[in-house]
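Entry for the shared binder. Reason: the reviewer on the internal report wants the predicted structure included alongside the sequence.
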Amino acid sequence: MDLHLKRHRSPDGDGEEDELEITATDEDVFTIDEAIDSCGFGWFQVKLSVFSGLIWVVDAMEIMVLSILSPAARCEFQLQPYEEGLITTVVFVGMLFGAGFWGAVMDKYGRKRGLFIISVGVCIFALISAFSFSYWFLLLSRGLVGFAIAGGAQAVTFYSEFLPTKNRAYCLILIEFFFAFGTFFEVVLAIFVMQPSSGHDDSILNVTTTLMTPIANSTLALETPNGGNWRYLLGFTTVPLVLDLFAFLFVPESPRYYIACGKLTKALNVLEQVARSNKKSLPPGRLVSKGEKEMIMMMRATNNTTLVSGDADETAMTMMGIEDQNEEAQESDDQLLAGKRESVSQDEGEDPERLLISTSTALAIEPKKESRGRFLDLFSTTERIKTTLLLWNIWFAAAFGYYGIVLLTTEVLTIIDELTVSNLTDGSYMPCYDHSTQRNDTICALLDLDDYKQVLWTTAAELPGILLTAFIVERIGRKKTMAIEFGGCVVAFFLMYICPINKIALMFLIFVVRALITGAFQAAYVYTPEVYPTAVRAVGLGMCSTIARLGAMITPFIAQVLLRTSIRGGEGTYAGACLMATVCALLLPIETMGKGMRDNLNVKKAPVEEEQNSSKA
C-alpha cells in the first residue's frame, strides 16, 4: 500500500492544508481469522484442549467439593445453618473480587502469564485450606481459593482465540466435558477419601480407603474427628492443576492478544507454530489487522485510490491503525508516516512537500494499539450496553441456578437422612414443611454411601446437558439455546414445588435441572467471548463471571438456609431466576452463530448486521 502526502499553503496564506493520496497495491494480505481458519482444527488445538481442560477440571473439583465440605465441617465445628452457608459464600465472595481483576490482568499482560499466576495461586491457597485448624481459618483460606480460581474462567478466553470459526462453538461446548469430569471425579474421590458409612460391607471401598488413609495421614498430620477427612480431600483436589503447571512451558501466548498489543511479528510467529503443528500452511501474503484489510479492500473497490483533505497526517495514522500512545511513539507525524521524503519543485511561490511511503515501509507500520482491559469500554455503544446488561442477568441466573442445584442435592439428602432419624419420614420421600421446628437441628448426619451414589448419579446429568447443547447450538443459535434450556429449568423447578414428593421423582427432576442448567451455562460461555472484541474480551468475560459470583454468593442461603425452612420458597426462587434468564436470552441484540470474532473495539456494525449486508450484496 502506497501513501502520498502533499502539503501546501492554504489560499489565504494563514496556514497549510494537507491532501493524502492512498493507493492500494495488489499484494496479498490476510487477517488472523483467515489464518486460524486456514490452520483448521488439528493437533495444536487437541493439546490446547487438554491444557485448558485440566484448568476446568480443577475449577469443577473446587466447586463440587463445597457440597461435600459443608456438611462435614458443620459436624466437626458444630455450625449453625447460616455458618455452614458461609463456607460456600466466602468462596464466591473471593471469586467476586477475583473475576474482574483477572480479566483486566489478562487483557493487559497476556493470557498465558495470567493463567500461570492463577494456577499457582489456586494450588497454594487450596493446600493452605487443607490445614485449617478452625472455622474462621477455613473461611479465610477458602476465600483466597475463590479469589484465585475466579480466573479459571479465562481459560475459555485463551482457548477460544485459537479456534477456527466453524469449530469454535462445538469446541467450547465439548470442553465442558472436562468440567463435568471434574465434578464426577471429585465425588468418586470423596467416596474413597471421606470413607462414608454404608449398610453393607463394600470390599472394594474398604481396600481402597485402607490404602489411601496412610498416604493422607502422612501428608496432613491432623486429627480428623466427625468426618474430618475433608482435609485430605482438599489436598488431593489440587493434584490435576499441579500437573498442568508443567504444560505452561509448551503453550504460546494468544496471537489475538499480540495483535491487540500491536505486535504483528509475534502474532505471526505463533500462527506459524500453529500451522506447523497442524501440518497446514498460512494464507499467502502478509498478516494485517482487520482495519487495514478493510481499508485496502475499500480502496480497491474505488479505483484503487483515496484522496483525503484536512489533517492528512492524523487521517493516515487513523486509517493505518497507528496510535501515538507510548514514549517510543512520541515522534513527529512525518516520522511516523514515512521512511523517506522527497523535495519537489516549487510552484507559484508555494512550497509543497511530497511524502512517499513505499510498500516495504508500510509493512513495518504496526497496527493501532487500542486501549485494553477497560471496564468502561463495555458501555461504549448502545448495543454493547444492552448486550452487557442482559449478559449479566443471564450469568447471574446461570451461576445462581447451577451452584444452587449442586448444593441443593446434598442438602436434600442430608435433610431426608435427618428427618428419617427424627422419625418424620421413612426415607422414601421428601415431606413438605415450612418451619424448622419440625426438625431436630442438633442431629448431625453425614452423607452415607447411598447418598454419594445419588450425588454421583445427578452429577452425571451434566453429560447429556452438554451433548444437547452441542447438538442444538449450531442449529438454532446461541440465544434460543439458552432460552430453551433456562425455560426447561423453570418447568422442572415448578414440578419440584409439588410436595410431598417421592425421593426417586425428586432426584430425577434434580437430574433434569442439572443437565439443562449446565447446557445453558455452557451456551453463555460460548456466546460471551464471541460477542466481545479482543480488546475487551477477557474483561467482558471477567465481569460476567463477577456477576455470576454474586449469584453464587447468594445461592447457599437459599439451598442451605431457606431450604431448611421452606422447601417451596427455595424452589420458587430458583424458578424465578431461570425465568428471568429466559427472557434476557431472547432479548440479546446479537446472534453470533457462524460469525468471526471481532478484534477492533471501534467496529460500529454488529456481526449480524455485517452478515445481512453481505447477503444483500
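Summary line for the report: The beta strands are 2-9, 16-23, 29-30, 286-287, 305-310, 340-343, 353-357, 429-430, 501-502.
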